[in-house]
Amino acid sequence: MKRALFPGTFDPFTNGHLDIVNKGLTMFDEVVVAIGVNALKKTMFDLETRLNWIQDCFKHDNRVRVVSYEGLTIKACKAHQTQFILRGLRTAADFEYEKQIALVNSDQDPDIQSVFVLSEQQYTAVSSTVIRDLIRHGGDFKKYLPDAVDVSAAQL
Ligand code: ADP
Question: Which of 14, 47, 76, 110 is the most exposed place for a label (fewest CB within 10 A)?
């Protein structure tokens, strides 16, 4: 059984994230979407809301599990018995950032392998940050989000 951990904040979970999970499922038998919780970081959506959305997106697919974790991603990998970290790449800036994290992770734990999936062209401009701005200021954000992602619980 090949399993990957897809870590992120998912504040909110977007069509870009959904696409990366679906692409991950073409390579892995199971993808564990792992919501990283940082007590010092204020999010627009609480953890339970984010967990529920992602579970709802994959309610018909038992190859996806949704969990949360605190602390190091490599420890979450151990806890969920995987050595593969799945991440999405939109731009060269993403690549530089992800490369740094991946190198430190594999330096900390040589068993860890990061696997990068390229974003589809139509999702390269989609980021949770931009969507939070659209939500705050009355923009049209719906087309960037899966149907299950209801933003009415936003903490503005
Ligand atoms: P983090 O706080 O770890 O950056 P995010 O929730 O912003 O968490 O992103 C999680 C992962 O999803 C990252 O690998 C990020 O590059 C990827 N990602 C985010 N948005 C997109 C997108 N539109 N297309 C492809 N990958 C994306």
Answer: 110
Residue boundaries of the structural domains of the chain: 3-148
- DSSP classification of residue 26: T
Q: Provide, rounded to the nearest whole percent, the portion of the chain with pLDDT above 70.
A: 100
DSSP class of residue 116 equals E
Alpha carbon of 17 to ligand 1 centroid (Å): 6
| DSSP sequence for 124-141 | TT--HHHHHHHHHTT---
pLDDT of residue 61: 98
CA–CA distances in Å: residue 155 to residues 21, 84, 85, 127: 26, 33, 30, 18
> What's the predicted TM-score (pTM) here?
0.96
φ and ψ at residue 133, rounded to 5 degrees: -65, -40
Catalytic residue among 23, 114, 119, 128: 128
